[in-house]
């Protein structure tokens, strides 16, 4: 079996030589280079590494990643359960309790005990690269994540902070619906409110609202929200104000979280959490929303134990949502990534986002 040493990889930056692991976000305002993983449910893992170097993601080595068979995946919500949950959310909306809810399901499949998320990262880099791709491998601490996330959760440079929520996906710009724009605007307003809790009065701006980003075969609506952190606010306050991201919860956030908890049947884990890095020495950091993200669960808790690969997919539900259409959206988002992980898709063409 592989010797799964601690490692973090973000773009062409590789970190090794683990020195500290903590759940205290205040550590991110101390010193050193940290890899950060936050589960949607709130578990935070901050790992400080001694050695950081530039190194491109290697090409997939033959046999290094043996993914599950395409037919081995199971879903926490099947089609009937998911569409019923969409109808239930529409009832909550009709009652005035919520405006939008992101409804997710978790897909799972067995993998071999020596499965390595860094080998999966190499496969993803070739088959489905992401703007905020990253790996955190801490097997002794129960964190083994490979993400191809396209979405910025938080970027920080000294006191300047930015978030880049994505809402709205279609094959062409002409196919974007009123629903897509409405979702994006609602989430931008939520993110403005979140950042406003820790930023100086009047500093929160929206330099880009519903900008159309074009990719092969798809377009997306992406906005930017920026602000200036108050002098008394650091990473603990920023994370407390913004987590979990508005784009994967809903609006109003507190109400959406309650609805999600009542309808979803499996923990999201790293999916819809946050994955990224913080350079405390330079006062910089970049955390992605944990979408398009795989993670390995080892029920035995140690390398060599039976392993399960997990992946999440979801859709934003509004009053205009069609239950079957929302199920199809989760299938669309999951299909390519599962094929890549199963070794059935290798061309790095179109780009799918949560």
Task: Describe this entry's structure for a reader.
- The structure is a single chain.
- The protein is of the alpha+beta class and 354 residues long.
- The chain has one domain: Anthranilate synthase.
- Helix content is 24%, strand content 35%.
- It has an 18-stranded antiparallel sheet that branches.
- α1 packs across α6 (323-341).
- The radius of gyration is 19 Å and the shape is globular.
- The two termini are 34 Å apart.
- Residues 346-354 have low confidence and may be disordered.
**Biggest β-sheet description:** 18 strands, antiparallel
Tally of helical segments: 6
Low-confidence stretches: 346-354
SS-derived structural category: alpha+beta
The share of residues in helices is 10-25%
The strand count comes to 18
In short:
The chain has about 350 residues and is an alpha+beta fold. The protein contains six helices and 18 strands.
Show the helix and strand layout:
Blueprint: E1 7-10, E2 13-22, E3 33-38, E4 44-54, E5 74-75, H1 79-94, E6 100-111, H2 117-127, E7 134-138, E8 143-147, E9 152-157, E10 160-164, E11 166-170, H3 178-196, E12 205-215, E13 218-228, H4 235-242, E14 250-251, H5 253-263, E15 274-279, E16 284-289, E17 293-297, E18 307-317, H6 323-341
Antiparallel strand pairs: 1-2, 1-7, 2-4, 3-4, 3-15, 5-6, 6-14, 6-18, 7-8, 8-17, 9-10, 9-16, 10-13, 11-13, 12-13, 15-16, 17-18
Helix pairs in contact: 1-6
């Amino acid at each position: 079996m592989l010797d799964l040493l601690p490692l973090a990889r973000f773009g062409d930056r590789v970190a090794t030589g683990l020195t500290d692991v903590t759940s205290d976000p205040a550590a991110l305002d101390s010193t050193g280079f940290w890899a950060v993983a936050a589960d949607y449910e709130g578990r935070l893992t901050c790992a400080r590494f001694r050695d950081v170097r530039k190194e491109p993601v290697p090409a997939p080595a033959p046999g290094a990643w043996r993914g599950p068979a395409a037919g081995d995946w199971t879903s926490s919500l099947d089609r009937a359960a998911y569409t019923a949950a969409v109808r239930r959310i529409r009832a909550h909306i009709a009652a005035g309790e919520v405006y939008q809810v992101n409804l997710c399901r978790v897909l799972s499949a067995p993998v071999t005990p020596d499965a390595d998320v860094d080998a999966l990262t190499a496969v993803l880099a070739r088959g489905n690269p992401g703007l905020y791709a990253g790996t955190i491998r801490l097997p002794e601490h129960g964190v083994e994540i490979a993400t191809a996330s396209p979405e910025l959760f938080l970027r920080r440079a000294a006191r300047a902070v930015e978030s880049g929520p994505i809402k709205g996906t279609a094959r062409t710009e002409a196919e974007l619906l009123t629903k897509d724009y409405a979702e994006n605007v609602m989430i931008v307003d939520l993110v403005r409110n979140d950042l406003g809790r820790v930023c100086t009065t009047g500093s929160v701006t929206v330099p880009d609202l519903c900008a159309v980003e074009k990719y092969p075969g798809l377009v997306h609506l992406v906005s930017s929200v920026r602000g200036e952190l108050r002098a008394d606010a650091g990473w603990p306050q920023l994370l407390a104000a913004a987590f979990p991201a508005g784009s994967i919860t809903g609006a109003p956030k507190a109400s959406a979280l309650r609805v999600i908890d009542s309808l979803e049947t499996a923990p999201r884990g790293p999916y819809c959490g946050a994955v990224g890095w913080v350079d405390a020495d330079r006062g910089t950091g970049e955390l992605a929303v944990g979408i398009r993200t795989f993670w390995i669960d080892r029920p035995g808790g140690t390398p060599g134990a039976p392993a399960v690969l997990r992946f999440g997919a979801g859709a934003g539900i509004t009053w205009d949502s069609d239950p079957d259409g929302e199920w199809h959206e989760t299938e669309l988002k999951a299909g390519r990534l599962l094929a890549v992980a199963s070794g059935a898709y290798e061309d790095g063409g179109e780009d799918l986002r949560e």
